[in-house]
Specification:
Layout: H1 3-8, E1 15-21, H2 27-40, E2 45-50, E3 60-62, E4 68-70, E5 72-74, H3 79-83, E6 89-92, H4 101-111, E7 115-121, H5 133-139, E8 142-146, E9 148-149, E10 156-157, E11 159-162, E12 178-181
Parallel strand pairs: 1-7, 1-8, 2-5, 2-6, 6-7
Antiparallel strand pairs: 3-4, 9-10, 11-12
Length: 192
């Protein structure tokens, strides 16, 4: 470990890590990787996901590559404070589906000495910043932007292409409804 790495590891404090990107970019895989490492280190880990996301499981976070970890399904992000009292590391998946309260919750947890790792979509299907992710990115000590591969041209993809004509902002789905696209190949359905 070099001098920079040694000084960049927080000690005796909490912090926030945000993993952001488009669909199929490996956000949940990276979240699972970090949480597994904390578990291997025998740290008390609690993992949360929103009730709206029951695509693959009701009691686990699951990546598109079928990696998974047991999690707690919650309706309201405020449930995390009470449920995570004894945890050292808190994982939150699909942060874009929670209210803006998640920003204060993450700050409170970090201020109480906890490592908070949050994953979520940073843009909606139109390429518009997906609240509350911009605020989480602003307060995080560590940010990871994940990229997928554009299914059309093979370039790095940071956009989520919706394959249906619905104009609702939130439609929970997977490859049946969405695919990864680059800036050049992405378009807004019904507006192209």
């Amino acid at each position: 470990m070099n001098e920079f790495e040694l000084h960049s590891i927080p000690g005796e404090t909490g912090w926030i890590e945000v993993i952001a990107g488009c669909m199929f970019s490996g956000k949940t895989e990276e979240l699972i990787r970090r949480l597994r490492r904390a578990q291997i280190a025998k740290q008390n880990v609690k993992i949360f996901k929103p009730k709206i996301d029951a695509r693959f499981s009701n009691n686990s976070i699951v990546s598109h590559s079928e990696q998974s970890l047991p999690s707690i399904l919650i309706d309201d992000i405020n449930e995390v404070i009470e449920s995570a009292k004894d945890a050292k590391v808190i994982g939150i998946d699909e942060a874009q589906f929670f209210s803006s309260d998640i920003v204060n919750i993450c700050n409170t947890l970090a201020n109480n000495g906890k490592r908070v790792i949050v994953a979520g979509l940073d843009q909606d299907y139109k390429g518009i910043p997906f609240e509350p992710m911009p605020q989480l990115l602003a307060i995080a000590e560590y940010i990871t932007k994940t990229l997928a591969i554009c299914v059309v041209c093979g370039n790095p993809a940071d956009k989520t292409q919706r394959k249906t004509s619905s104009s609702e902002r939130v439609i929970v789905g997977a490859s049946d409804i969405y695919e990864a696209r680059c800036r050049k190949c992405h378009y807004i359905p019904n507006e192209s």
